[in-house]
Amino acid sequence: MTDHTSDAVPITVGPLYSAASADDGARRLLRHTVATVAYRGGKAVRNAPAGFGEFRVGETSRTPGQILAHIGDLFDWALCMAKGKQVWQDSVPLRWEHEVERFHAALGAFDAYLASDQPLARPAEMLFQGPVADALTHVGQICLLRRLADAPVRGENYAKAEIVAGRVGADQAASRVEFG
Q: What confidence score (pLDDT) does residue 180 get?
């Protein structure tokens, strides 16, 4: 067996990234993810039929309105966590159209903080794995409930969607490649 360690040439390599650039990259990805929630969630809630917010598939299931209120709560919590606080509130669902406005407002407040130069009190990964990933799950539930309520959301190739960090309001780009 040959020992190659003596043949090693020491190489001095500067840091590949600084903590600040790593944080910037994580924030950029988190902002893009929030914009993805806005795009997919906006599609899920847009043009919902009258009464959809109260649609229920079972006695103990959440209504779409309750789920959407929960998503708003998740982004309020995400903002609190980003600022270094631990505050949770279970909101009473508003009327559907007001809950949709709240959804986009909560995304907007969280995204504005991410876009600022204020430090994140929690790692971006924690913010993603908790409130943001949970919100993506719940957007999927709303889509499923739309299908069960005979008002399906058209599928789409989301990899081709025009999703832009910072675009978190109700005004989203038109779908590019929808399916049947």
A: 66
Indicate whether 4 pLDDT > 50: no
- Look at the alpha carbons of 87, 137, 69, 106 in this order and tell me if their dihedral is positive or negative: positive
> Has residue 17 been placed in a domain?
no
Residue 164: closest CA among 100, 109, 130, 115: 115
Which residues are 156's β-sheet partners? 178
Q: Which structural domain, as residue segments, surrounds residue 113?
A: 28-160
Beta bridge partners of 178: 156
Task: Round to whole Å and give the CA distance between 28 and 11.
Answer: 32
% of the chain beyond a pLDDT of 90:
84
| Cβ proximity of 44 and 139 under 8 Å | yes
**Domain-embedded: residue 179:** no
Spatial contact of 175 and 43, defined as CB atoms under 8 Å apart: yes
Phi-psi region of 162 (alpha: psi -120 to 50; beta: other; left: phi over 0): beta
Q: What is the CATH number of the domain that holds 121?
A: 1.20.120.450
The total number of structural domains in the chain stands at: 1
- Given a contact cutoff of 8 angstroms between Cβ atoms, the answer to whether 103 and 72 are in contact is yes
pTM of model > 0.70: yes
The contacts of residue 14 (CB under 8 Å, 6+ apart) are: none
